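#struct-queue
[09:14] JT: dropping the first one here, sequence first, then the structure tokens:
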Amino acid sequence: MLQAHPVPEPVPVPPVAATVVAPPAEAEPRRRPHRRRAATATPLPQRSARQIERLLHEVFGLQDLRPGQQEVIARVLAGQSTLAIMPTGAGKSLCYQLPALMLPGCTLVVSPLIALMKDQCEKLRAHGLAAVEFNSSLDAEALAAAEAALADGSARIVLVTPERLADPDFLALVRRCRIALVVVDEAHCIVEWGHDFRPAFLEIGAALRALGQPPLLALTATAPPETAAEIARLLGIARSGTVDAGIWRGNLHYAVVPLTEADDKLQALQDTLQRCEEPGIVYTATVRAAEEVHAALAAQGLSVGLYHGKLRAAERHAAQDAFMEGRTRVMVATNAFGMGIDKADLRFVVHYQMPAGLDAYYQESGRAGRDGLPARCVLLYQRRDRSVQHFFLGGRAYTQAELARVLAALSPDTPTDLAQLQQDTGLPRARIAALLALLLQARHCRKARAAEGRAGWLAATAPRGAPTLEALVQAEQARRQEKQRKLQSMVDYAESGACRWQVLQEALEGERRAEGCGQCDNCARMLRLAAPDVLVPAMAGGAPPLRH
């Protein structure tokens, strides 16, 4: 029995208008903020347009820019910091790769995952772009070569993890270079991961200040209005600097299969997989569920791989390679798999357990159908699955006393490292790192180099207007409440009888499309009720309907 266990040049493309993300309303009942369209788009100089067209053809082998790309590229070339929200498959990477060939100096790309970074670096080199990476997987020789390429200016694109960017020695090296543009890829990770297990994401703002605030491009496929506003605030992007291409992708067909018993879930998954013999992903919320589902499908003779964060790096790479090369048809994975995966022919994404919110769900389900052909996105919904996400949200909240204890242990003159802070405060090391990230973000401390080359921190006099410790705790409490709201929105989506796309757009864009999509399971059901004699397929192309 399987159960949940918490444990390129512009060929005339109409410019996409920039949008503004408004802060959440205070009044009750709670109102969703709307994205407002900016008055004007940034014009693209004719000379740049000709150069873009040439590079687009000769380097990237493309004919046209896609909707949204021209607007973002024009802003980047004009030196305007931008948050670009573009759906999966819309070509976000080109928005910095193409300008990197035109801007004087190098482009610094902050990437969340080493595997994603390696994939991006290999593809850039395949296009003839001089790219280097900095992360913990490099040996001494590779690190020295990357540092030399950065120092002599031959590297046009430099990919780094947020942890490496936060390192004072690396920042000192980068400060000696000409940085034309800083890119934060998968920028939603700042909000989703920065306050929890990847506090280095919260240090990006401090690193940008140390580099003299170069122009910034933040890229993401999903950012509800509140998330977009938080990203912009943390990175110092103006309210008018958001380009939103929208989330609508007409080739994605959404459906929910409601289930009451855990024993029925595996059968429902097998039924869904039998309806599509092409490649796809099955997502679970926990490692244990991924292993159980993988074992069950493998026992049925399916071509299935397994990917989660607790596997050894060699095992993860082998599983990913087999899937990308078509030697494995189905990948069973946690959300550790998929970010930046460029496999255009995925015909389905099934969620065996529901994710933490609709933004995460859209991000993961949107990996299907990147080639523009019909693909299905199925959620196997059992109400008790939300207890898994409640477990993940159940960590102890940060307190003002903890922030004060860490701050009191810092000296304004002598750098203190994590080991010493752990001894002085009695707090776990991971918690101290998260508290330091909050204090650094509010400029109550700054990074330095401690004894024996280890990273350290110094107390700092916060500038006028900086958040107080009380304000930091209140903001943290608000973030926790927002996570609870997102989880409830995921439940509401699963139990809604409305058009799935309408629910997604209202949650992620603050606006609901006027009419249903006509193709999701709920739209198909309503059409059948309106015209019972007409056969309504679950998706275009005559695919058989999903079992409900």
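[09:21] JT: and here's the second one, same format:
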Amino acid sequence: MDIKIFNKIEQAMQVGMSDTRKISIVLAFMCITCGISVIFGNGNNNILIMVSAVFGMYMAMNIGANDVANNVGPAVGSNTMSLGLAILIAAVFEASGAIIAGGDVVDTIRSGIVSKDAFNDVDTFIAVMLAALISGSLWLNLATFIGAPVSTTHSIVGGLIGSSIAAGGFGIINWGVMLEIALSWVISPVVGGVIAVIFLYTVKRTITYKSDKKLAAKKIIPILIFIMSWSFCLYLLQKGLSKIVSLDLLSQILISTIVAILIFIFTKPMIVKKAELLQNTKDAIGDLFTIPLIFAAALLSFAHGANDVANAIGPLAAINQAISGAIDAKSSVPMWIMILGGLGISLGLALYGPKLIKTVGSEITELDKMRAFCIALSASITVLIASALGLPVSSTHIAVGAIFGIGFLREYLKSNYNKMEQQIIQAHKGKDAIIVENFLNDFRKSSIKRKQEILKSLKAKRKDNFILNKKAKKALKASVKDELVKRSALVKIVMAWLVTVPVSAIVSAICYFVIISFLDHF
């Protein structure tokens, strides 16, 4: 990212409201939450429902502060949209997704991690759910504070595991399901990274490496938008709107294809017309990805709100239902809980989201519009592939894995390019510096095919001087190793991922014993 852009983001974050005002807004929201929970919640135990609602909204705000950055961070980091616009779009679509498509029934025990018949005692069930909610939100808060994007689903899963083990022992957990979740820690970022790399390399080979970039963009970008439209439509039908519109897979694919074709027909003339007005440069062509990226951020936010709001409202809905004496693996969600959950996510994003947006958008690797587009496309396609294979994946791990994949590809390509230039310099050893510089300039302007021909010709002529010695190779490798991917960010994020479930589980177990003791006495 250009340093001027980075400074603008920094200034936007610093100009924000003070911590005192943020805390005041949060406290006001919590007071409103308590009032609504008493009015509309199960009246058998007002104190318990108020406490549960407060921690449910605390979880929702932490989801907004941590997880939503994955949807808009790349767009902000690539200077596609301002920080303020990104927060506004994400807040509106996250809340809309949560309220409109959040579902009236949620899975309270996370798809079979805990046996459905494990809890026959209402107090035990409530303590397990509340402890999971508290521990998951506390871990998310800490992760946000240190600037580590983590999976909110894994946070609540870890909490559920810890409190369940505390309540019923290790045998209560379905370890086969847990193994699938553990595998997703590796599968999600790797697949997300690979798909993002494939798309970015395709964009480079078909557009940015071409001498006539404008002509290439007219042909390729409409195809990319077709792929994006198809994948996002199918993604929304499967993940964002599945609780509203229930369709079989064939119908979903057919509708997505029709929508993608219509968008292709509508957008291609616009792209061709706009491309004619642009300069034949990589940065100029990147502007053609602006509108698709804004739509991608909005759609990802809607789908995320529809799905991940369950991590906050699921346990709350379960507690609300259990207070009346009913224990069910699938809990109905009252509208007041869905509305509060959507508002909580948006509020957390607006107040505390910029920190993680900065991390995702600029602190891992440098992003431009083309790279950000590939990350967004990777997010939707990876989820579709995982769903088809029945694999549990994390949207956070996918997005962050895609960003790292983009960064490592850039690092590899730059290292290769620097190596080629060093080989040219070696091949011209002893010649006038001006001749070497002119040759390098011609080489830089050449197409990929022409570059390969130049290197082949030089290798044949100056075979002895063309090969880099070990010292030169080592120096070259060191020069790009930390330049394009920040290893400190990689270590911090991976470590946070690895400890998410264990930390949430340990904190949840402690919380369980405190809560069950309280319930026993009162």
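[09:30] RK: nice, looked through the second one.
[09:31] RK: Strands lie at 105-107, 330-332.
[09:31] JT: good to know. The longest strand covers residues 105-107.
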